[in-house]
Amino acid sequence: MELQKLIQVLDAPVVTGNPQAEITGIQSDSRRIEPGFLFVAVRGTAVDGHTYIAGALEKGAVAVVCEEIPQGLNDKCIFVVVKDSAEALGKLLSAWYGNPSDKLVLVGVTGTNGKTTIATLLYQMFRKLGHKAGLISTVCNYVDGEAIPTEHTTPDPITLHALIARMVEAGCEYAFMEVSSHSIDQKRISGLSFNGGIFTNLTRDHLDYHKTVENYLKAKKKFFDDLPATAFALTNLDDKSGMVMLQNTAAKKLTYSLRTLADFKGKILESHFDGTELLINNREVSVHFVGRFNAYNLLAVYGAAITLGKTPEEVLVVLSTLHSVSGRFETIRSPKGYTAIVDYAHTPDALTNVLNGIHEVLDGNGRVITVVGCGGNRDKGKRPMMAREAVRLSDQVILTSDNPRFEEPDAIIQDMVAGLTSADMEKTLCITDREQAIKAAVKLAQKGDVILIAGKGHEDYQEVKGVKHHFDDREIVRNLFANQQA
Ligand SMILES: CC(=O)N[C@H]1[C@@H](OP(=O)(O)OP(=O)(O)OC[C@H]2O[C@@H](n3ccc(=O)[nH]c3=O)[C@H](O)[C@@H]2O)O[C@H](CO)[C@@H](O)[C@@H]1O[C@H](C)C(=O)N[C@@H](C)C(=O)N[C@H](CCC(=O)O)C(=O)O
Ligand SMILES: Nc1ncnc2c1ncn2[C@@H]1O[C@H](COP(=O)(O)OP(=O)(O)OP(=O)(O)O)[C@@H](O)[C@H]1O
Ligand SMILES: N[C@H](CCC[C@H](N)C(=O)O)C(=O)O
Ligand SMILES: [Mg+2]
């Protein structure tokens, strides 16, 4: 594609050299430049892409988009100077692929917890309703039926635009995606045109990155601020940040709630371990999901589907057939009559919600044994809070390792222990080896009890010092249960 044509999408770019050059690809990583490419120099969190411009030119880049031309390189190639390279990158990629996000209905889901669940259920629902659809999520990306493994909740812009282009090529009419706060802050979603945005909730997470809750909130809000008037913005009225998200949006404002009057109003009629009876806008539905937090997720799914033009009847029929998302409240029954639940709760709020969900069903019958750890190189402030919540809502707690990354597992456990009193410690064990911790929980459990294994959900690895070792909570539980007799 001709550079001249490509850069038409940018706001007031200043160009040096002749922009009639042909571009063979766009790349923001100098290591991946091929001859004829356009290099976009982005200021990152670790390094500044501007320092790699010379390297990109050596590898054959013919043009560079940047915020500042490095000294001495002025005449070495065509420079396109912009105010914000990260924003420019997304716009250029969208133009490169022929604006694929304009060719399907794109809905983004943001918030601290519930993104994967809502995006995945919407994807499953629209496929069940006979449409081709795509999914971009923490667990896995999908181009209709084709699974594409992922490392991120919201991929980098190059992967993201290529993925949406593939969805369009495959005939997808809808795409549902998780929009993480990191991706909003880093403008990974620039150049995408959204038809709708959904807000779940905002509680503590990622303060290692955003530093303050206020910055974290601002990042989430920016997603709604940037939605066009043609889109819808569906928010959780029961979350204290719910309405804040919609303050400055041009999109059509819609709400869901379990407490007050809203566009999509729900009520829990009855809950048990196999599911919940719900009332949604005065219609009864039986679902295979447990916990109040999942009632919120289902309300959001219902609200989005109705807003996208589906009828209440067809949406409720499909809703009643959907099952829990991989690693989210996944129940495994022991022949001995107790239940293990593997869940991705990795924030204090998620842990509280999952444990409350378990208590709603147990209703005082049976004990709760919780196995939980916290990830390394992530928000340290949540560690003592998670330990406290686990102890407050469990009969027995085993603190263990999650993904230690580059930290010492025992030091992370000590950060968790710091949140506990000596009375709390009486019902707490620390077993660093996660497999041994799960084994200990299984030994302690008796008929009617619940073992909650929290933090890793669908993850099939444990990340230690940059290496991912195979590790799957569910596999360990299933193997232990397979050797049991009733
Ligand atoms: C802290 C963080 O979010 N970092 C993300 C960020 O990288 P960065 O800003 O650190 O990039 P950088 O290393 O500083 O490099 C800056 C620029 O120089 C370029 N470069 C760099 C080196 C070189 O030799 N040549 C070169 O051109 C890079 O390609 C980049 O364009 O942008 C990259 C591309 O988009 C991401 O892959 C990377 O994710 C890192 C690996 C990460 O772990 N991120 C996590 C925290 C994350 O994003 N998580 C969220 C939410 C999780 C959840 O709650 O679900 C997610 O969306 O996954
Ligand atoms: N609506 C909700 N409110 C509070 N907690 C929830 C909600 N939905 C799910 N959870 C809890 O949070 C965990 C993660 O859920 P999910 O994967 O759907 O969230 P997410 O927002 O995608 O998380 P991530 O930021 O890691 O991508 C679940 O395992 C459950 O414990
Ligand atoms: N995707 C999130 C959740 C991580 C879950 C937990 N298992 C951990 O490793 O901290 C993150 O990267 O912060
Ligand atoms: Mg997710």
Automatic annotation (TrEMBL):
Gene3D superfamilies: Mur ligase, C-terminal domain, Mur-like, catalytic domain, MurE/MurF, N-terminal domain. ATP binds at G111, T112, N113, G114, K115, T116, T117. Meso-2,6-diaminopimelate binds at R378, D402, N403, P404, R405, G455, E459. Residues 22-97 form the Mur ligase N-terminal catalytic domain. The modification N6-carboxylysine is found at K220. Pfam families: Mur_ligase (PF01225), Mur_ligase_C (PF02875), Mur_ligase_M (PF08245). Residues 327-457 form the Mur ligase C-terminal domain. UDP-N-acetyl-alpha-D-muramoyl-L-alanyl-D-glutamate binds at S30, T153, T154, S180, Q186, R188. It is found in: Cytoplasm. PANTHER family: MUR LIGASE FAMILY MEMBER, UDP-N-ACETYLMURAMOYL-L-ALANYL-D-GLUTAMATE--2,6-DIAMINOPIMELATE LIGASE MURE HOMOLOG, CHLOROPLASTIC. This is UDP-N-acetylmuramoyl-L-alanyl-D-glutamate--2,6-diaminopimelate ligase. It comes from Parabacteroides absconsus.
